[in-house]
UniProtKB/TrEMBL annotation:
Gene: atpF
Coiled coil: 47-102
Family under the similarity heading: Belongs to the ATPase B chain family.
TM regions (residue ranges): 24-43
Official protein name in the record: ATP synthase subunit b
Gene3D superfamilies given in the database record: F1F0 ATP synthase subunit B, membrane domain
Amino acid sequence: MIANLVQLAAEEEQSPLVPPGPELLVGTIAFAIVFFVFWKKLLPNINKVLEQRREAIEGGIEKAEAAQTEAQSVLEQYKAQLAEARHEAARLRQEAQEQGAQLIAEMRAEGQRQREEIIAAGHTQIEADKKQASQALRQDVGKLATDLAGKLVGESLEDHARQSRTIDRFLDDLEAKAEATR
């Protein structure tokens, strides 16, 4: 029966989709050999390479995650340092303002003290100049009064002690009158 089929198949026109029997057998054996070599030799190597790549990718991802975690940690540290530096700068500014205000207050107090010293020295100088002017004026008025009295009387009033007492008495009277009119 198989022989009849083979003969019928030979007699019929050969279909292009169905290869002849011996070629089909040789193709199947060749495919089995290639598949066996592929399955025994190439497939483990391919799987090994794929596994290495997967491990490398996973390791790379783990390294990237670790690097990202470390970068985040460093970023947080930098942010903390920056915030600390800003607080320190604000504190230093505040201290500088306080020191500036203190220096201004000290300089004002020193200026006020110097002003008061200058005013006191000026008053002292004015008082000394006033006494000196009063003394010089007293002497000049006394001399003029003595000269005038001498001319009126017609004789010289040269006695120095008497002259001095007379002048002092006259000026004291003038000062008393001046104070009484105030």
